[in-house]
Write a structure and sequence with these properties.
Layout lengths: L2 H12 L6 E5 L5 E3 H15 L9 H10 L4 H4 L9 H4 L1 H15 L2 H16 L3 H20 L8 H8 L2 H4 L3 H20 L4 H7 L5
Antiparallel strand pairs: 1-2
Length: about 210
């Protein structure tokens, strides 16, 4: 198959990310797609780039963002707090999906996408650490924009547990994390959520 035909076959699959809905709601009450989440992460990467304590390869970072959730075109999106068979088999299904995605493209492009995805999953390079941080930050930023009624109760706890570890390696990201967290707290307080109880539940309070 020639490269142009392979490319079109790949875009038929990647288009599914525009259709795959996440457990995140927009400010207008509509659910967010995976593609929208990816776009917002890419924009965040551009915005934080010059402020980072530890510089990164911006082009590689943006490429990694573009492919980090590509497997969800086949495997679907599974919320971090979901339990059960889908969560248990998530890693295996995503790896199988990446093998199929890699084989849709010419060998060089397929290998590049696969390598970027595994680099993101391993979270050891500066670029992967940044993308992991932005992935978690963007989720909470979007939650902060949505109606509190769209939050599951477990998501009150996640405000204090899902972002810090991924942002701790860079002073600017850590500061951004605290700002996002403060915005979430204000939203919860306005919705009469007992913040002290939430903090105690996650070991962040007296």
């Amino acid at each position: 198959m020639d490269p142009s035909a392979r490319l079109l076959r790949f875009t038929r699959l990647s288009e599914r990310l525009k259709l795959e809905l996440r457990h995140s709601w927009m400010s207008n009450g509509r659910r967010e797609s995976v593609a929208e989440h990816t776009w917002h992460m890419a924009l965040l990467a551009m915005l934080v780039d010059r402020h980072l304590e530890h510089p990164v390869d911006t082009e590689r970072t943006l490429k990694m963002i573009l492919v980090h959730d590509l497997v969800e075109a086949e495997a679907g999106d599974v919320p971090v707090f979901e339990t059960g068979p889908r969560q248990d088999s998530k890693r295996e299904r995503e790896r199988a999906a990446m093998r199929r995605i890699r084989d849709l493209l010419d060998p060089e492009t397929g290998a590049e996408i696969s390598d970027l995805w595994y680099e993101f999953e391993d979270a050891e390079t500066p670029e992967a650490k940044l993308v992991q941080a932005l992935d978690h930050l963007e989720v909470q930023m979007q939650h902060n924009l949505a109606d509190l009624g769209t939050w599951e109760e477990v998501e009150y706890d996640l405000v204090y547990t899902k972002m810090d570890r991924h942002c701790a390696h860079d002073r600017f990201l850590a500061a951004l994390c605290e700002t996002v967290k403060l915005e979430a707290e204000r939203k919860m307080e306005a919705g009469n959520v007992d913040l002290e109880s939430v903090r105690r539940r996650v070991g962040k309070g007296p």
